Amino acid sequence: MTLTDYAVDDVITLVRRPVLPEADKEYREIGIRSFGNGIFHKEPVPGHEIASKKVFRVEPNDLVFSNVFAWEGAVAIASEAEKEMIGSHRFMTYRVNGQVADARYLLPYFYGGPGLEVIRHASPGSAGRNRTLGIKTFGAKRVTLPDLAEQSRVADKLVAAMSGLDRVNSLMSHAELLHPQILASLVPGGIKEVNLSTVLIRVKRPVGLKDDTSYRFLGVRWYAKGPFVREVKQGREVAADTAYRVEDGDFIYNRLFGWKGSFGCITPELDGAHVSNEFPTFRVEASLASLEYVMLLFRVPALWESALARSSGSTPGSRNRLKEQELLAMKIPLPSLEEQAEIVRRANAIIAASRRAQWLSETSAALRRSLLNAAFAGQL
Question: Which Gene3D superfamilies does the record match to this protein (predicted)?
Answer without folding.
Answer: DNA methylase specificity domains
